[in-house]
Amino acid sequence: MVAPSAKEVFIQGVTLSGKTFRPSDWAERLAGVMSSFRPGGAHPGSHLSYSPWCIPTTLGGVKCVVVHRDLREAEPMAWDFCMNFARDNELQVVEACLMPDERPR
């Protein structure tokens, strides 16, 4: 269950039993499905980029999808789809905050 105060949740490509989730491109697939859910709604060409509310990434060598709480506010069914995907596939879900990369000085 995700706390109401969480700004972002990380769906990790590791199952509750510790196994790596397959297929290896699952994060890109999930984020691709969610690409039309974005601030201001879908627009021509929005399927060509990921939504800022559902971003695939790799953290510590683990594939993840970062799902922002704003998705829950704007499109509750899309949020439920992501959370149900994690639950149905027994993936680890962690509440966290994605920090921007430090810029070189």
UniProtKB/TrEMBL annotation:
This is DUF3579 domain-containing protein. InterPro entries: DUF3579. Pfam families: DUF3579.
